[in-house]
Amino acid sequence: MKRRQFIKQGIGALATLALGEVILLTPDEAAAATRRMSEPAAPPPVPVVDYRNLKQVPSTCLNCSTVCGIVGLVQNGELVAIEGNPADPNTHGTLCAKGVGAISINTYPERLLYPLKRVGKRGEGLWQRISWDEAYATLARRIQANIDAGHPERVALHQGRSRLGAEFSRFLNAIGSPVSLNHRALCSSNKRAANYATIGDTDWETPNADKSRYILNFGSNFMECHQGSIHLARRVAQGRANNGAKLVTFDVRLSNTAGRSDEWHAPFPGTDGLIALAMGHVILEAGLHDAAFINDWVNADLAALRAFYAPYTPEWAERESGIKTADIRRIAREFAAAAPAAVAFTNRGSQAHYNGFNNDRAVILLNALVGSIGQEGGYNYMKTGLGGFGVKQPEPVPPSPKIRTDLEDPPEWPLANRWQKMRVGEIVYDYLKAGRAKLDVYLSYTLAAPLTWPEGRSLAVEVLCDETLIPFHACSDVVYSEMAHYADMILPDASYLERWGLDNRDNYEMRPYIALRQPITPPPGECVSFADVLINVGKRLGPEQARYFQFANHEEFVRQQCENIRIPGVANAFDYLKEHGLWVDTAKPTAWRTYERNIADSELAGTRSDEAGIVWRTNAQGKAVAIGLRSGDRVRRGFDTPSRKFEACNAEVAKAAAKVGIADDGWPHYVPIPSHLNLPADRLILTTFKWNVHTQARTAPQKLLSEIVHDNPLWINSATARRHALKSGDWVEVTTYRPKGHTLHPTGEMLGRQRVRVVVTEGIHPRVVAISASLGHGFSGRASEGRKGRRRANPGFASPTGNAAREDWDLAENLWWDKASGGRGNGFNLNAIIPIHPSPVTGMQSWFDTVCTVKKV
Ligand SMILES: Nc1nc2c(c(=O)[nH]1)N[C@H]1C(S)=C(S)[C@@H](COP(=O)(O)OP(=O)(O)OC[C@H]3O[C@@H](n4cnc5c(=O)[nH]c(N)nc54)[C@H](O)[C@@H]3O)O[C@H]1N2
Ligand SMILES: Nc1nc2c(c(=O)[nH]1)N[C@H]1C(S)=C(S)[C@@H](COP(=O)(O)OP(=O)(O)OC[C@H]3O[C@@H](n4cnc5c(=O)[nH]c(N)nc54)[C@H](O)[C@@H]3O)O[C@H]1N2
Ligand code: SF4
Ligand SMILES: [Mo]
How remote is the CA of residue 493 from the centroid of ligand 2, in Å? Predict the structure, then answer.
């Protein structure tokens, strides 16, 4: 007890923590401390905003991965509002609620402000404030020890959606570690793999919806989320208004997109591929295909396509998916009739399954059958990335490490790192536990594994707590998150509104663009952008490593990255981007039908053609690479695939599958999901989804967003609810089971149980129950925990200007969804009982396949 008197308690006390002082940070302590506060405090004055005289700072949003252009409005050094940047070619200045609501993260009174080091047991919540010097020195010492011991691979960097790829790969390359871990297999690797395996060119499609007449959506909830959510939502609206485009959505749930479509169809989970194949069957049977496109550009002839599609009848698809044969036939005909101004596309609903890789390939193939690839109104794609603008790693460039480990490159999933370093993130904690790799230093950044990982609060937390498996964990975060709680050192980060970086995505106007993220306001307290942390640690490493970090700061790094960007009439591209936020290269041709482009004779010197007409060039490493396709006296660019054609059938996929003992002929067949075969009548499929006002685990601390959505009961169909005598508001116990098939731990055994409230609705498939991501936080402060109460008496949030040290009265008094005040609380997180379930060959987490039962409690 005596010891405790010297320990400050509660997140509210962070702001007054002196160097060397110790603080106890657990949600219970924080709540107790805030509730004990009896001292009345007056509401702080609300600053008057003079909208006529605000400073405007353009930058790039990162409250989700759509990365829209924004303009921060600043008064007296404080961010008072966020607007869209009208120059953004994708959004034309529109923002979503998250983009606007993000303002509350910069003024959140519970932001982390100082570096902290763990002084109690891991996960106990006892922290001591330390200086950045101590933090940098500790990190450098530990990392250097691993380099010196010849084990740089024992240093791992694990990131969520950071958009700091160049910075992170530089750091890891400099120290010689290949262990760059990410979230991609939790997110999009089947989709990316499907695009690479068919069109070879991109990780994301760019549907030309505004020019389209038929928009066929398999499992994308783009009116709420999606990597190009605003871009697509506004263009679909234009397509419907201007061309009378029809929007048909397949989703197991009446999402906001499904509800705003002309037709909503709810298939049994994981059957989208089969439905698409049946549509292809109908198109070929009725002769509605584009024979010329198939002849010129598909790597299989009509006879081979007919043979492949023959067994996939609409009747079979109806038996498996529940979608009526007549609907499949009608939609297929309507889609083909609208082509080439017709587009079929996907997102996680079709790809986050055991069979998702083939589902997505089957949908893309529909576009090829009707010749809508690359056409106005059709299925489009364009190269993204910054390399096309001349953005380079500043010299000297560290070489990539030659070593590999099972952690970032598990041999069981041979396509996980084939086209892109997608990794198989969901197996990381399992492999550490199994001793498949050894770590010493684990750096985590914008990652909320306990909340967002499958078996998050179960396995991930168990491994994060185990000091033999993870001897040292440094976590960069903006709030005291559940991830930070299990760290040994906390590195308080600048939010994306307070830091630098280059970014871009595909442009729906089909021309490349480049965008800058810059600090709209300086970070509070002693927060330092993680990119700067890496530079500062790098400088303290040995001379072999330190020479790669000779930048004054991250801004200087980004400035150097921009040195080769040429903007006509502009002396300095970096200064231009600071002023305008982004630049669209309008001199570049638009990216329609890029496969048809001729390769100039001047580029053909030293190339050779083979008998299939493929043109090869030997690159600098002495390797022959296919660059185009000869047709008559022209050489055309074709697709970035081995055949330079659209690959309906992919030989490399067949080879990769064979390597891991899976029979696969390279065609996107329908693969029934093993754990869904002969499903007993009482078993349901648990799916999850995203909200329009939340992003994964990162938005719950943003009060403006959590006020809109803070509760997420389990959706259950009314017929199913009747069988269980359930009504909205009742509680159920959900029991989940491990998967079967070619995956990790395919035992079919029970995994776990959790209680949750239900909401009864017609808007979901009768065999599916659904719960949203993003809620149920146990940490991260009052807004995300859903607990109101005063902060302890202290000067409070250290505002950048130092004048407005203020408590947030909403969190102190107005947080009306606090259970203690009769509200519904802050929702549920069911990831603890969603099994780790990598899909075969690619390793994508099969999020939407979980078999479960529900029981009224
Ligand atoms: N508001 C918001 N926007 C976001 C994000 C966010 O968290 N919030 N996150 C960003 C990121 S990282 C991503 S990956 C994207 C994700 O964007 P989306 O993929 O569009 O969103 P999800 O909710 O993951 O999944 C989409 C839908 O799949 C449905 N579904 C489940 N199983 C099936 C099935 O078998 N067939 C079909 N047809 N549908 C099924 C779910 O009901 C859900 O509505 O959004 C990005 N944008
Ligand atoms: N049940 C379920 N689980 C899912 C999904 C789902 O649909 N359902 N979606 C999956 C998908 S698509 C993805 S992409 C993953 C994403 O999962 P993660 O990669 O874990 O991403 P986030 O949840 O965005 O990570 C948020 C963490 O970053 C911290 N953070 C926020 N801003 C900053 C910042 O500026 N700096 C730093 N250093 N930290 C910050 C937050 O406090 C939080 O701890 O989740 C997956 N998990
Ligand atoms: S969709 Fe919303 S949250 Fe995502 S980047 Fe755009 S404005 Fe930001
Ligand atoms: Mo994602």
Answer: 15
Nearest CA to 216 among 96, 384, 350?
350
Sign of the Cα torsion 286, 291, 297, 300 reads positive
- Most informative mutation of 690, 694, 714, 774 for ligand 1 (most atoms within 8 A of CB): 690
Q: Which two three-digit tokens encode residue 28?
A: 């219970």
φ/ψ (deg, to 5) at 197:
-70, -20
In the β-sheet with 582-584, what is the strand arrangement from edge to edge? Answer: 501-503, 513-517, 582-584
What angle do helix axes 356-369 and 272-285 make, rounded to 10 degrees? 20
Residue 183 beta carbon below 6 angstroms from any ligand 2 atom? yes
Ligand 3 atom closest to the CA of 66, numbered from 1: 5
Separation of 262 CA from ligand 3 center, angstroms?
Answer: 25
Q: Which CATH architecture has domain 675-786+826-856?
A: Beta Barrel (2.40)
Is 116-185+394-497+541-569 in CATH node 3.40.50.740?
A: yes
Whole-number Å distance between alpha carbons of 378 and 342:
5
pLDDT along the chain (857 residues), means of 10: 64 79 78 50 77 95 97 94 97 97 88 93 94 98 98 97 95 98 97 97 91 98 95 98 98 98 98 98 98 98 98 98 98 98 98 98 98 98 91 97 97 97 97 98 98 98 98 96 97 97 96 97 94 98 98 98 97 98 94 94 92 93 93 93 97 98 98 97 98 96 97 98 98 98 98 98 98 96 90 41 58 92 96 98 98 98
Q: Which residue has the least CA distance to atom 6 on ligand 3?
A: 68
How much is the pTM? 0.96
Please enumerate in sequence order all residues whose Cβ is within 8 A of that of 412, keeping only pairs 6 or more positions apart, or say none: 424, 660, 838, 843
Measuring CA to CA, which residue among 794, 803, 780, 799 is closest to residue 16? Answer: 794
What is the Å distance from ligand 1's center to 81 Cα?
Answer: 28
Minimal-distance CA residue to ligand 3 atom 7? 99
**Cα(376) to centroid(ligand 4), Å:** 28
Name the closest-CA residue to atom 41, ligand 2. Answer: 698
Domain boundaries, the chain: 116-185+394-497+541-569, 205-369, 598-636, 675-786+826-856
Fold of 205-369: Dimethylsulfoxide Reductase; domain 2 (3.40.228)
